[in-house]
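User: Fold this one for me? It's GTPase Obg.
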Amino acid sequence: MSRFVDRVVLHVSAGSGGHGCSSVHREKFKPLGGPDGGNGGHGGSVILEVDLGVHTLLDFHFHPHAKASNGKPGMGSNREGPRGGDLVLKVPDGTVVLGEDGEVLADLVGAGTRLVAARGGRGGLGNAALVSRARKAPGFALLGEEGETRELVLEMKSVADVGLVGFPSAGKSSLVSVLSAAKPKIADYPFTTLAPNLGVVSAGETTFTVADVPGLIPGASDGRGLGLDFLRHVERCAVLAHVVDCATLEPGRDPVSDVDALEAELAAYQPALSADNGLVGLADRPRIVVLNKADVPEAAELAEFVTEEFASRGWPVFTVSAVSRDGLKPLTFALADLVEKFRLDNPPPEPSRPVIRPVARDDSGFTVERDHSARGDFVVRGARPERWVRQTPFDNDEAVGYLADRLARLGVEEQLEKLGAEPGDAVTIGAVTFEWEPTLPAGVEVPLTGRGTDARLEQTDRVSAHERKHAHRVRRGLEGIDPEEQ
Ligand SMILES: Nc1nc2c(ncn2[C@@H]2O[C@H](COP(=O)(O)OP(=O)(O)OP(=O)(O)O)[C@@H](O)[C@H]2O)c(=O)[nH]1
Ligand SMILES: [Mg+2]
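Assistant: Here's what I get for GTPase Obg.
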């Protein structure tokens, strides 16, 4: 059994989109056959997918960087660049994905459940797709978008069937080691176990998993010992087994008060995931009491003495020894029965419950500021619109015109007005400096300042080249109409 890695930081980067191609169709006797530069291919995405054959996050521990491939550039003769391949990372069932700020992005449950962890950049439009009424033969193409890059935290909440809880040194790890093939660390000092151990147990037809968690002590809910955080590993367990040390000589401890103290801690635990896993809270989970260390004569006596008390609470009681292996068989079969019953009552979730994360794409993340440099009066920061146009034709009026249109649609006009810009003021964006003309070209009276039209394009993710071209034309056709009315 491998070590149980339960939390890893994973850096994911999606592939960038290929650049659009700027090309002119050429044929004998038809020197200028019109623009035919194809679009760049989309970059590949990084996708997390639940695979029931994967049980740990160990792989990510060793390979914490994942990158999907880039899209290829578009080509002449309207050939689209090939897409970058998606990178599918297999994760265990019950993996929780957290964002940089600790927010839960997804709780991946069920075979095949997928999360797009980093979305590939879209390919840039080729000049063929940039044709408009105003620009019949654009001499430029657009750059591909960069792929998303994020830092994620993956946490595994083991989906064990049986959770062993108990005081430090009660023998939890010892039990896992004799019930299964797992070889957890066992030692006679408290808090030997720092991360949960998972073992697979076979009992007749039934196979189930047992998780041992670090020792619990009174006050754990206030952070004493290792606290209660790790109880998330037993949140989904079908059965909780109290492992009781009947041989302890510590003053003030005996099996009944040990179990009572732990019950109080379990009741204090606030499940992080009670929301939709359909399970009852920890406090209501069926219990089994395992009285351990019966190989020690005094312990066996004490176990016999307290059996009645636990049985009267309706809990099955088993007296065992992890050292001599006495009493393990009946315990194993009783656990198997409870697990079977739980599985019947709680059928597994749909084989695939896709978790779709809303993609936040801020296409207007720029600011317009008064510029104090000698170059211009205003400067647009945050956006890198020069990246939008390929082949840097900044002396090319057409490309500059395209940029100006696009900036107008994104709301730069509005911001300039707010800042008190006057016609003729110089506006600098990256390498380009414009002379600001607040009145848009002839025939256009209402400046397009909203994000409506562009947002529509942004949301039409993964559109075909044809759809894109069409959308582009539609957008063009809508020029001059107030975005609110569209
Ligand atoms: N005599 C006897 N000793 C046992 C038995 N089970 C466990 N021990 C001993 O008790 C000590 C603690 O055992 P562990 O299995 O590490 O206990 P744990 O509950 O996992 O402890 P933490 O990980 O610290 O919470 C070790 O020295 C074991 O050898 C048993 O059945 N009989
Ligand atoms: Mg242990």
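One thing worth pointing out: The pocket of guanosine-5'-triphosphate (ligand 1) is lined by residues 166, 168-174, 186-188, 190-193, 212, 214-215, 292-293, 295-296, 321-323 (CB under 6 Å).
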